[in-house]
């Protein structure tokens, strides 16, 4: 086959022209090496594609830009799935924006890594002391970030199904014990109506694993790391209680109570009646209520011996350490701390408002409302994930170990290896001192 | 009778194999017209592959409401096309020098180039971010040009690092080896220089290799995901693959994902169909097989 060379030459010229055009288009934010250009500040959020929450961010920015003439905030939205990669890459190039949101458990790591600076929001409309503790992130006694909402996990079930199999519907004051929970699952499995009576979202990935399952580990008496100084995981993550949790967790699969890997959309399966009990977040509460109405039971976490536990801390806002206009960034942060925005976030995202004042204005979350139970869960049962810069590493190791255990690996060996790897990481980083 | 059975068996095998590859695409396309509930409802039966039920274009409308899909598509076409065309020029020139010209150390250079194939991109992604951030950049500022530093958040940072490609060089090298060297000698006798030989003899005879490299360069450029997430902050510069993660939020819209996936798969299929014959020919002639 002989190809004509003239088209190639034409193509080469076209490419050269296109390259020049591209170079000309290379405006972007190239000149903003410090997250701000004068009084124009860049803000990053993880909400690209999530119009509900993104619209609230846009509203705050619009209100802020309109409320004064000194500063202007510009939005850049990223997809959540790889938001952290974008931030890490930008930090390595010293291209972080002035303002950015961060998942609560990552705050210590980003503070230790020098991505974030402490913030001072004193004098804002809503004082930090009014917030749910899990919605304010501190590291070394300094506030680095705050959130407008939190989420809570709970079990969801249908009262009619539980009643049919003579299963007690637990309350916040009297949650299920481990024995009751196991018995309930056995009854539901025996009924033959459910291939897997329990839906725990085991097809999830990333942070879902420590967020969803480490509170159960804690309720057994274990933990991800020894929180006394955060210097070792050995003896804690692979301790007796943790191994008991892992053995029980695996037994859910071997007894056929739970799928080793759940479907693409566990909530859809629950709504379709494929599972009887679902371990899920408050974000799906409204959808579940809409489908089942009064028949929906929002069930507190099981008390496996050390009290019921759920994870705390969701997305929060902070300021980068490389921001060249920290005064402007602090102004935006302070401005955003108005009750109306706490309300807007909670309404838009079906999450728990971070303050009681906001909760009173959100349907369902008022005292006595059908969703107020999540506020109580967050206040009563929430435990923040380990406040250490090592957390992202711990999270990954725990996920690997838990997935291996569900796949059939020996619980003690898997947790032991994870604890050993975490200890090595701590040692390599000098226990994240400094 | 036996040969007829063999014939039918062979056909049945090929049809079965074709179905294995075609059914996921068919599922994607059909599901893109169905509401989410129906997608899940049809999963347990053959209906999953059939355009039945409440079909509509709602998912496609939803895609454009959720993602600046048209902009992402234009960006990807631009980035992938420029990467392909410049990549073919750069890599074929390198391969020509390694294959047709005699100079000391060329085997060592070829070995070094091939050795880079085993280094996964993820291992040097962060250093590369640092590196591209040190490069000089000519920017348009109002009505004049100005020099600045750092290629972050530009089109060229999505193109230039991927122009030189070890596999493409190796592929061109192997193909060029199959073109008789006597053609070069005859051309030299006629007074041609090396560039003339490259431009007028070797490249015109390398159509299948060019087509194959075009496909193999286009695919990763089109599928690029991690790199643009790391180096591009402005939404208006993002490529299509980043767009897919816009849908994986709390309320995942599976129908919209299928619609978006269908939209971004069509260009790839069209490219492959256009170059299919050349692709197969060149794979067969270079001895490079998957």
Automatic annotation (TrEMBL), chain A:
Domain of life of the native organism: Bacteria
Alphabetic keyword roster: Signal, Transport
A GO cellular-component term linked to this record: ATP-binding cassette (ABC) transporter complex, substrate-binding subunit-containing
Signal peptide: 1-22
Biological processes, Gene Ontology terms: maltodextrin transmembrane transport; maltose transport
Family the UniProt entry places it in: Belongs to the bacterial solute-binding protein 1 family.
PANTHER family: MALTOSE-BINDING PERIPLASMIC PROTEIN, MALTOSE_MALTODEXTRIN-BINDING PERIPLASMIC PROTEIN
Protein name in UniProt: Sugar-binding protein
Organism: Streptomyces flaveus
Automatic annotation (TrEMBL), chain B:
Transmembrane residue ranges: 12-33, 72-96, 108-132, 155-172, 201-222, 257-275
Keyword Oxidoreductase: no
Top-level taxon of the source organism: Bacteria
Membrane topology note: Multi-pass membrane protein
GO biological process: transmembrane transport
PROSITE patterns for the chain: ABC_TM1
InterPro entries tied to this protein: MetI-like (IPR000515), MetI-like_sf (IPR035906)
Cited SUPFAM superfamilies: MetI-like (SSF161098)
Domain (ABC transmembrane type-1) ranges: 73-275
GO cellular component, one term: plasma membrane
Keyword list, A-Z: Cell membrane, Membrane, Transmembrane, Transmembrane helix, Transport
Compartments, as annotated in UniProt: Cell membrane
Family: Belongs to the binding-protein-dependent transport system permease family.
Protein name: Sn-glycerol-3-phosphate transport system permease protein UgpE
């Amino acid at each position: 086959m002989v190809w004509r060379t003239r088209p190639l030459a034409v193509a080469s010229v076209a490419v050269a022209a296109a390259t020049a055009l591209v170079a000309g288009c290379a405006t972007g934010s190239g000149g903003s090496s410090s997250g701000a250009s004068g009084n124009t500040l860049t803000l990053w959020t993880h909400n690209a594609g999530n119009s509900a929450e993104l619209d609230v961010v846009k509203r705050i920015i619009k209100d802020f830009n309109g409320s004064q003439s000194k500063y202007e905030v510009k939005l850049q939205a990223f997809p959540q799935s790889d938001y952290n990669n974008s931030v890490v890459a930008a930090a390595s190039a010293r291209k972080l924006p002035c303002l950015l949101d961060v998942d609560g458990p990552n705050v210590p790591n980003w503070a230790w890594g020098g991505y974030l600076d402490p913030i001072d929001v004193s004098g804002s409309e809503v004082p930090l002391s009014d917030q749910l503790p899990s919605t304010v992130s501190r590291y070394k006694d300094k506030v680095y970030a705050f959130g407008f909402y939190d989420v809570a996990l709970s079990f969801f079930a249908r009262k009619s199904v539980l009643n049919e199999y003579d299963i007690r519907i637990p309350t916040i004051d009297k949650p299920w014990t481990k024995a009751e929970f196991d018995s309930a699952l056995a009854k539901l499995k025996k009924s033959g109506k459910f291939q897997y009576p329990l839906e725990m979202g085991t097809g999830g990935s990333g942070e879902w694993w420590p967020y969803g399952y480490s509170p159960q580990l804690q309720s057994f008496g274990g933990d991800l790391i020894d929180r006394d100084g955060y210097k070792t995981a050995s003896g804690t993550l692979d301790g007796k209680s943790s191994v008991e949790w892992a053995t029980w967790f695996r037994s859910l699969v071997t007894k056929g109570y739970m799928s080793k890997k759940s479907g693409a959309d566990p909530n859809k399966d629950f709504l379709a009646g494929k599972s009887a009990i679902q371990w899920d977040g408050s974000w799906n509460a409204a959808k579940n209520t809409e489908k089942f109405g009064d028949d929906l039971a929002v069930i507190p976490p099981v008390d496996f011996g050390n009290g019921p536990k759920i994870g705390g801390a969701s997305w929060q806002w902070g300021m980068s350490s490389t921001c060249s206009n920290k005064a402007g960034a602090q102004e935006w942060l302070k401005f955003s701390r108005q009750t109306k925005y706490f309300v807007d976030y909670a309404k838009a995202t079906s999450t728990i408002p971070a303050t009681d004042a906001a909760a009173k204005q959100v349907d369902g979350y008022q005292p006595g409302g059908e969703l107020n139970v999540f506020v109580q869960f967050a206040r009563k049962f929430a435990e923040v994930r380990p406040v250490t810069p090592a957390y992202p590493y711990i999270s990954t190791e725990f996920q690997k170990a838990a997935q291996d255990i569900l796949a059939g690996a020996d619980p003690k060996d898997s947790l032991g290896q994870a604890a050993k790897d975490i200890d090595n990481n701590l040692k390599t980083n000098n226990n994240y001192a400094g | 009778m036996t040969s007829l059975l063999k014939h039918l068996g062979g056909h049945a095998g090929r049809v079965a194999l074709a179905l294995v590859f075609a059914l996921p695409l068919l599922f994607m396309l059909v599901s893109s017209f169905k509401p989410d509930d129906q997608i899940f409802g049809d999963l347990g039966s053959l209906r999953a592959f059939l355009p039945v039920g409440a079909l509509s274009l709602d998912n496609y409308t939803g895609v454009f409401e959720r993602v600046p899909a048209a902009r992402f598509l234009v960006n990807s076409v631009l980035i992938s096309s420029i990467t392909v065309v410049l990549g073919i020029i750069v890599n074929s020139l390198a391969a020509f020098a390694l294959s047709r010209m005699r100079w000391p150390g060329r085997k060592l250079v070829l070995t070094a180039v091939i050795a880079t194939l085993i280094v996964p991109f993820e291992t040097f992604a962060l250093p590369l971010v640092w590196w591209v951030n040190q490069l000089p950049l000519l920017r348009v500022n109002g009505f004049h040009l100005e020099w600045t530093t750092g290629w972050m958040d530009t089109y060229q940072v999505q193109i230039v690092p991927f122009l030189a490609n070890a596999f493409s060089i190796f592929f061109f090298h192997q193909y060029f080896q199959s073109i008789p060297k006597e053609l070069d000698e005859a051309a030299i006798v006629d007074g041609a220089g090396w560039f003339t030989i490259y431009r007028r003899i070797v490249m015109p005879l390398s159509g299948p290799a060019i087509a194959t490299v075009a496909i193999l360069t286009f695919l990763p450029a089109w599928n690029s995901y991690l790199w643009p997430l790391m180096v591009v902050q402005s939404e208006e510069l993002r490529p299509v693959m980043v767009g897919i993660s816009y849908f994986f939020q709390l309320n995942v819209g599976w129908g919209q994902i299928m619609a978006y996936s269908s939209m971004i798969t069509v260009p790839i299929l069209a490219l492959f169909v256009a170059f299919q014959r050349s692709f197969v020919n060149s794979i067969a002639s270079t001895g490079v097989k998957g």
